[in-house]
Amino acid sequence: MLEVLQNIDWNPFLVSIKLSLITCFILFIFCIPLAWFFSFKNFRTKKILETIITLPLVLPPSVVGFYLLILFSKYSFLGEFLEKNFNITLAFTFEGLVVASCIYSLPFMFNPLYVAISSIPKNIIEASYSLGKNAFVTLFKIILPSIKPAILNAMVITFAHTMGEFGIVLMIGGSLSGETKVASIAIYESMENLDFLTAHVYSAILLIFSFLVLLSVNLLSKK
């Protein structure tokens, strides 16, 4: 056991944390105006768009990963366009993992923010407008301070979900050490090689890390 701990490869955990942080940041910036828009606007296709956004909650990761892999490949219109014009390759790259994670984790960030913003009384928003505050000031001075618990909840859920992703990261990123090989892939490969001790150590580290993150958030929420 001691020998395994000394020789452990920390790169998969670093890649997982990096991927989770970037995904959380991008989705937070994207979902705040999106949740704001959905909360206060009514349009014909609203329910259809909401369904599309929440679809990853019920779709198996392998299904999402399969179609994204086809979309990201250099033989698709998008993949060919990005490679020819911007020299960007999404399949089996860290950048592709980020895009795939943002798509698959979108509802975990969007739903808590959407519910929280929708629950704010509209007369508070109208009062802010009547005092001459524009939408930008209202959002940052009124809305966001009022939904701090929901923001924290959305960030933690999205971070934890991204840390534990397996199917979609395997389909899109493969297992490139130091680039796309995340902790869940490292555990899977250890099991495939019948190296149960290493798999146990990796799993225990991920379990302890997840527990500490959730415990910290619960303590902060209580305060």
From TrEMBL:
The gene is modB. Keywords: Cell membrane, Membrane, Molybdenum, Transmembrane, Transmembrane helix, Transport. SUPFAM superfamilies: MetI-like. Belongs to the binding-protein-dependent transport system permease family. CysTW subfamily. Pfam families: BPD_transp_1 (PF00528). It is a multi-pass membrane protein. InterPro entries: MetI-like (IPR000515), MetI-like_sf (IPR035906), ModB_ABC (IPR011867). Part of the binding-protein-dependent transport system for molybdenum; probably responsible for the translocation of the substrate across the membrane. The keyword Cell division does not apply. Residues 13-217 form the ABC transmembrane type-1 domain. It is found in: Cell membrane. It comes from Campylobacter peloridis. It comes from the Bacteria. The chain crosses the membrane at residues 20-40, 52-70, 90-110, 150-172, 199-220. This is Molybdenum transport system permease.
